[in-house]
Specification:
globular, nine-stranded antiparallel sheet, alpha+beta, 16 helices, five-stranded antiparallel sheet
């Protein structure tokens, strides 16, 4: 195999790093430290030509193929065991056209880099809530962030994708040239090819927004969270809020009296006319007796990067997520009790208020779905030592099980390794069938399967497996 990788190196500008080389241990790591896999080689692609060579190389030799862009995926889908990883992180181009309000971005770019360029012109598109998240994986899985209630999912602002297909051919995909494939790419993840560049619509946002957290001690959390759940459906679309149950870190704006204690933080952002911020956010800021209200004028890029210090790479991570129809009294009690029993100070429970432009967009507009969901729940468990993982995982699963009765589906970007039924739940059976048909046309051999995999409809068992009754009555791995 070493000779074979030498032949790949001769075809590429980027290097192919193998286990016998210095730097391999560092290069193979992904964001989630719980994922420890050892690829046979990691091709550090220097451009689209290297991606073409890597896809053809893997297909011809029957190698398992994984694609890494940001590498932030909780399930570790940017790596594989014993196969070839296409590492796209060197693809760092960002081009902003202020006239057309369009951006073209290569797929190694993270949101921090994207926003740095776009915000210089007061422009943005729907990104994540951390600047270290990769643009490509986030968008191809749908993309929910601070601008979602105003502009929809990230994939709703996507206008074209440069793709390398399973046949090893470059293809430019948009709504006119390949409407079915473009529909599938907007939410269907990496199932249909390797994206090398994305084109987005941009929107006038910032550089300054009104944003920040309002922090409450846990003893107020039940009443405040109930008030939040009642208030958020009526927010203007320019407003977004995420309720976070977490352990207060020893950092501003958390007061020293709460450091190390579980708290409720109502984070919010207003991106409309600054004069309308106070009235729009007042229903969220008037709840309870906050320990601190840190809402005010901030740079959009600073808000996007504010959570980065708490989500650095290398820690152990385990997540469970669902879309929820809402929060009732029992669910709120369950959430607050779980926060009182955090197994790690690095963990949190996020509840993102949805609706607005996301819900107004037709359900069949893209593969991304569940647009009618009220709340996106994400239980983020994070710890530094692998020897106590049973406690952390058990806490996560128990909380998720209690809340799952309110689930209306699941966001594919927050899925771990949870099985076919959960992937179907991310799309619904009708969309899954359509995606499986499109997969069969563009990747019939399922070369691109290191992802939340949509099996091609031509695979003998795919249709049956895809339509199997749900077994989601209890937590999965």
């Amino acid at each position: 195999m070493a000779d074979a990788f030498d032949s790949l190196r001769r075809l590429c500008r980027g290097g192919a790093v193998t286990p016998d080389q210095d730097g391999y241990e560092e290069v193979r790591q992904v964001w989630n430290g719980s994922i420890q896999r050892r690829p046979a080689a990691i091709l550090q692609c220097a451009g689209a030509a290297d991606v073409l060579a890597g896809v053809r190389f893997a297909a011809e030799r029957g190698l398992t193929l994984a694609v890494r862009a940001g590498g932030h995926n909780i399930a570790g889908l940017g790596t594989c065991e014993g196969g070839l990883v296409l590492d796209l992180r060197a693809l760092q181009g960002v081009w902003i056209d202020p006239g057309s309000k369009r951006a073209r971005v290569q797929t190694g770019v993270t949101w921090g880099t994207f926003d740095h360029e776009a915000q210089a012109l007061g422009l943005a598109t729907v990104g994540g809530i951390m600047s270290t998240t990769g643009v490509a994986g986030f968008t191809l899985g749908g993309g929910v962030g601070w601008l979602t209630r105003r502009f929809g999912a990230a994939c709703d602002s996507l206008r074209s994708v440069d793709l390398v297909t399973a046949a090893g051919q470059p293809l430019s995909v948009d709504a006119e040239s390949q409407p079915d494939l473009f529909w599938a790419l907007r939410g269907g993840g990496g199932n249909f090819g390797v994206a090398t560049a994305l084109e987005f619509d941009l929107h006038e946002v910032g550089p300054e927004v009104t944003a920040g957290p309002v922090v409450y001690p846990l003893e107020q959390a039940r009443d405040v969270l109930a008030g939040w759940a009642e208030a958020v459906p009526s927010l203007p679309e320019e407003a977004m809020s995420v309720a976070v149950l977490r352990t207060a870190p020893p950092d501003p704006p958390f007061p020293a009296s709460l450091w190390g204690q579980p708290v409720l933080s109502l984070s919010m952002m207003w991106t409309g006319d600054p004069d309308g911020a106070d009235a729009a956010l007042r229903p969220l800021r008037a709840l309870g007796r906050p320990a601190v209200d840190a809402v005010g004028a901030k740079q959009y890029t600073a808000v996007q990067a504010s959570q980065d210090p708490y989500w650095t790479p290398g820690a152990q991570n385990y997540w469970k997520a669902d879309y929820l129809s809402g929060l009732d009294e029992a669910a709120i009690a369950t959430l607050v009790d779980a926060a009182a029993a955090f197994t790690s100070p690095g963990s949190d429970i996020k509840l993102a208020a949805l609706g607005g432009a996301l819900a107004r967009t037709p359900e069949d507009a893209a593969a991304y779905g569940h647009r009618d969901a009220a709340i996106l729940l994400n239980i983020n468990t994070r710890w530094n030592s692998a020897d106590s993982s049973t406690d952390h995982v058990g806490w996560t699963r128990a909380l998720w099980t209690e809340l799952h009765r309110l689930a209306t589906g699941v966001y594919v970007n927050f899925l771990g390794d949870e099985g076919d039924n959960r992937i179907i739940q991310a799309y619904g059976e009708d969309k899954y069938r359509r995606l499986a048909d499109i997969k069969a046309r563009w990747d019939p051999a399922n070369l691109f399967h290191i992802n939340q995999n949509i099996q091609p409809a031509t695979t003998a068992s795919a249709a049956e497996a895809g339509l199997a009754p749900s077994t989601e009555g209890a937590p999965t791995a």
